[in-house]
Write a sequence for this structure.
């Protein structure tokens, strides 16, 4: 056998292995999507099959109606409102704060930077109860406010990511703009903000899907069904459906579609965001 | 004249670095005080109190903490959390590193492969996946069916104290994507000549891995380890949905315990005390990892 054929065989084996293993990794997702088209008896138990014998869309129509008085239309609307506003807030506040911490030399900058890093490392669960007590005493539980307002007050992970990005921008740009008569506010809006573009897209993608998937926030603050988000609603929907898993699979599949769409279009930005800050750069 | 002078001073004031800095940092400073500092202080105060929402807090000194260490459910939750972290975190990191190395081979499909292997991380934390996972590993699901076919009749993950944590650990390890990407970008930065030089010296693949790859990656291993430790200690959603902490508290991890005490039993003060104990343990563990890291993390002296 020549060296070349040996190499080709090795290559083919490599791709076969990666694809096969990838299939195993995606199996739970594939199982869910196929399950959403199956009849009840084909999902679990001894008669379970890999493909549906008949592709049914009843699971979707049945699931969409929801278990109570609200359809999934309401839940998708709620999720969209919360995710969009939370993402908007994150972008506005994090660009501002990262500009201050990365570019402006003000008294106390080091101190606030340390506070930011500490907040980033502090697990949210530790603050779960006292934050709930505060929102409750303000009469805000049951509204979207506890899920949205905090995002307008800076989000350390994204602040840190944007700081790394701003530090990579040449300082000469700021200086040139300053000489041309821009003040520090104009430097932010006219120089830094436009250049932050890629970092802002990364933030939008990641924060949108984090908020979309969030379970603990709605669990604590949104008790009324009218206010439920998709991720929370499918949990109560699953509880109400008992052993009829088809509609639950269908709604689970639907709930993941916005995340998949974002991933499809922006996966490069998402992956940039994941590695930002971890590797020296 | 007088007015104009005041106007310029205001303008000057607004353009001072200190003013600009605080104007732009204001969202974070307000947020930090209102959403981190005050809650931390409140939580510390309530951890010495008996407190329910709507009723005045009553100072009870150290009773909550003493109670916690006599509470077998709490001690058990610490035990199972530590077990989960010790098994789950290394598993996830080893897995992430292996896949990252597998995908370093430069092919046209590399980007596509990375995207495919990243999908579990994208959706793994969602409620949808947790619900599906519950059925996938449930007594009538395909995985138990396969295990039963191998002869273990009567096997059931969620009915067993010993095995219930396995689906949770696997669900966590399955979301290896971000660690994988971080490893992958680290692997790319290792100079190729290191490997070439080692080959000339006759080193095999295993030796290259031990003496080049691992030491070069050590700063990134540390970063991933710390991140995964923190998230591992605080695992919540999956356990809350998939096992509800059961059976017999076998998967009632600390954050779930805190949640149950605070909201299901309305013992807010007690729950605050538990979260402080947890925070101290986490700080101690990450501190120890950080301290020992000096012996196994190698930084290149580039600067």
């Amino acid at each position: 056998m020549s060296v070349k054929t040996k190499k080709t065989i090795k290559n083919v084996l490599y791709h076969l292995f990666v694809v096969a293993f990838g299939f195993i990794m995606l199996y739970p997702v594939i199982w869910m999507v196929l399950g959403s088209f199956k009849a009840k008896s084909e999902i679990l138990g001894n008669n379970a099959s890999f493909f549906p014998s008949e592709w049914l869309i009843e699971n979707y129509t049945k699931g969409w109606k929801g278990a109570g008085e609200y359809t999934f239309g309401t839940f998708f609307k709620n999720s969209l409102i919360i995710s969009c506003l939370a993402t908007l807030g994150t972008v506005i506040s994090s660009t501002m704060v990262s500009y201050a911490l990365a570019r402006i030399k003000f008294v106390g900058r080091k101190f606030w930077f340390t506070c930011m890093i500490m907040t980033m490392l502090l697990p949210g669960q530790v603050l779960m109860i006292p934050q709930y007590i505060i929102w409750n005493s303000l009469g805000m539980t049951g509204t979207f406010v506890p899920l949205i307002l905090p995002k307008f007050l800076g989000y350390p992970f994204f602040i840190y990511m944007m700081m790394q990005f701003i530090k990579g921008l040449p300082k000469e740009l700021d200086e040139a703009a300053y000489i041309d008569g821009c003040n520090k506010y104009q430097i932010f809006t006219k120089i830094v903000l436009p250049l932050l573009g890629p970092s802002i897209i990364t933030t939008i993608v990641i924060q949108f899907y984090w908020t979309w998937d969030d379970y603990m926030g709605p669990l604590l603050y949104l008790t009324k069904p009218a206010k439920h988000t998709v991720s929370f609603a499918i949990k109560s929907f699953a509880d109400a459906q008992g052993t009829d898993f088809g509609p639950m699979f269908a709604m689970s599949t639907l709930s993941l579609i916005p995340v998949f769409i974002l991933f499809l279009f922006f996966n490069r930005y998402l992956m940039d965001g994941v590695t930002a800050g971890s590797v020296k750069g | 004249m007088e007015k104009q002078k005041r106007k310029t001073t205001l303008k000057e004031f607004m353009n001072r670095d200190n003013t600009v800095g605080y104007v732009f940092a204001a969202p974070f400073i307000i947020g930090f005080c209102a959403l981190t500092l005050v809650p931390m202080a409140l939580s510390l105060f309530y951890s010495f109190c008996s407190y329910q929402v709507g009723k005045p807090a009553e100072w009870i000194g150290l009773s909550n903490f003493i109670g916690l260490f006599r509470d077998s459910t709490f001690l058990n939750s610490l035990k199972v959390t530590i077990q989960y972290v010790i098994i789950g975190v290394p598993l996830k990191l080893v897995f992430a590193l292996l896949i990252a190395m597998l995908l370093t081979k430069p092919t046209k499909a590399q980007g596509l492969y990375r995207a495919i292997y990243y999908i579990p991380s994208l959706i793994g934390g969602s409620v949808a996946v947790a619900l599906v996972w519950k059925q996938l590993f449930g007594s009538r699901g395909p995985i138990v069916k396969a295990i039963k076919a191998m002869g273990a009749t009567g096997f059931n993950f969620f009915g067993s104290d010993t095995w219930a944590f396995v689906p949770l650990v696997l669900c966590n390890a399955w979301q290896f994507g971000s660690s994988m990407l971080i490893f992958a970008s680290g692997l790319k930065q290792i100079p190729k000549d290191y490997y070439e030089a080692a080959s000339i010296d006759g080193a095999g693949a295993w030796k290259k891995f031990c003496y080049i790859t691992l030491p070069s990656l050590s700063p990134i291993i540390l970063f991933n380890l710390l991140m995964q430790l923190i998230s591992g200690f605080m695992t919540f959603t999956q356990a809350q949905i998939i096992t509800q902490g059961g059976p017999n508290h076998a998967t009632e991890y600390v954050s779930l315990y805190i949640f149950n005490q605070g909201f299901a039993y309305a013992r807010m003060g007690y729950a605050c005390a538990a979260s402080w104990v947890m925070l101290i343990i986490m700080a101690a563990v990450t501190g120890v990892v950080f301290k020992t890291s000096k012996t196994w993390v190698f930084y290149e002296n580039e600067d």
Remarks:
- The mean pLDDT of chain B is 88.
